[in-house]
Design a protein that fits this description.
mainly beta; 2 domains; Immunoglobulin-like; Porin; 7-stranded mixed beta sheet; about 375 residues; 14-stranded antiparallel barrel; single chain
């Protein structure tokens, strides 16, 4: 959900945390490619680019790092790196807090590098179909020994729709106050932006755009837009095409930039296909760890899973309001519980004997909005 344009060459996601995993999850990728870049300190140039991102997430914490560098044919360089650590409230709650710290660095040939840091506090409210967030941030950015205070506030939301939640719309508003003066006038501005993200098989599309308004200083009113397409040609290899314009990021002293880029990505694909549950039918319970849903009445569904060695089994999902619900063992060894479940896409997790939460063996693992993974369940 929360994306950072690194030097404007490509849009890299600092992975949003998600709901509950039994064990830590790590992801990463490396991009190598070329781009046409228009940026202060470099001018207009065709550049070689290298970028990378990595994230390590547990149930209540996350470490994420991303960076990008570019080199022109006449040996001019630009680059940026960002590291974020975050801590979250207990999972599976309708509202959760987040505390995070971010450190960043940006440099370009012929100029002193800039470094900065920010502390962030944010509240999240979410469900399987969407949610919202609001937060505040404070920090500082320095260049050539001159440091400036940064204050900010932001709020937004997202919604998932389409088959198996393949499409996501998100929008946010952010206000930034920079202590520096430009011609004796403080730098204060507001941004309104939105994204559409689509995942279908090997294809990922991301479209974004927004506008900035400044009541003070030289920024005035301006807009930006970006588009990228990622095609996974092999399980760990993708082609990435991106183009757009990024506005100045005063919180990290990064200038405005225009770019068109083509890169080869090596890493773990972020797309996944959902498993659709059978309604009615029988026999699938013999597969240990498979979760099945069977219709009983118009609104009620019988959820069953076979776990032969379990002493107790609990289910937690968006249709239980993320509260653990005990399942009952039947004579044939299956664990069952009856719940009202509307048709659509749902997120679920299972716990055995009070241990860690995990995804049933026949469900796709998907990232949600807070630290880990859950299973994606589609009920017709």
């Amino acid at each position: 959900m929360y994306r950072l344009v690194l030097s404007g060459l490509t849009t890299l996601a600092i992975l949003a945390p998600s709901l509950g995993a039994q064990s830590p999850v790590s992801q990463g990728s490396i991009d190598v490619g070329t781009a046409f870049l228009r940026q202060a300190g470099i001018g207009e140039a065709s550049v070689l680019t290298a970028a990378g991102q990595f994230a390590y997430r547990t149930l209540r914490s996350e470490l994420a790092a991303s960076g990008i560098a570019a080199r022109t044919p006449n040996d001019l360089y630009t680059g940026q790196g960002v590291v974020t650590v975050a801590r979250y409230a207990a999972p599976f709650q309708p509202m959760r807090w987040e505390l995070a710290a971010t450190a960043s660095s940006y440099g370009v040939s012929g100029a002193a590098p800039s470094t900065g840091w920010q502390l962030l506090a944010r509240a999240h409210v979410g469900s399987s179909l969407g949610g919202g967030f609001a937060g505040v941030a404070a920090g500082s950015v320095g260049q050539a020994g001159v440091w400036r205070r940064i204050l900010g506030a932001h709020a937004g939301g997202f919604a998932r729709f389409g088959s198996a939640g393949a499409d996501e719309l998100s929008a946010a508003f952010a206000y930034t106050d920079v202590s520096r003066s430009v011609g004796g006038v403080p730098l204060r501005y507001a941004d309104l932006f939105g994204y559409w993200q689509h995942r279908s098989g090997p294809l990922e599309i991301l479209l974004g755009g927004g506008a900035r308004a400044s009541a003070f200083g030289p920024l005035g009113t301006s807009g930006w837009g970006s588009a990228s397409a990622t095609v996974w040609v092999m399980p760990r290899v993708a082609l990435v095409v991106a183009a757009g314009r990024a506005l100045e990021d005063a919180a990290r002293a990064v200038p405005s930039v225009r770019y068109v880029s083509l890169a080869l990505r090596v890493g773990l694909p972020s797309h996944s296909s959902a498993a659709t549950m059978s309604v009615g039918g029988a026999g699938s319970e013999q597969d240990d760890g498979r979760l099945e849903v069977h219709a009983t009445t118009d609104s009620m569904r019988l959820v069953s899973i076979r776990l032969d060695d379990a002493d107790s089994v609990e289910l937690m999902a968006d249709f239980t309001d993320w509260q653990p619900v005990g399942m009952t063992k039947t004579p044939n060894g299956a664990w069952r519980v009856e719940r009202p479940i509307p048709p659509g896409v749902h997120r679920v997790a299972i716990r055995v004997g009070g241990g860690g939460w995990f995804v049933p063996s026949n469900l796709a693992h998907v990232a949600d909005d807070f630290g880990g993974e859950v299973g994606l369940l589609v009920v017709p």
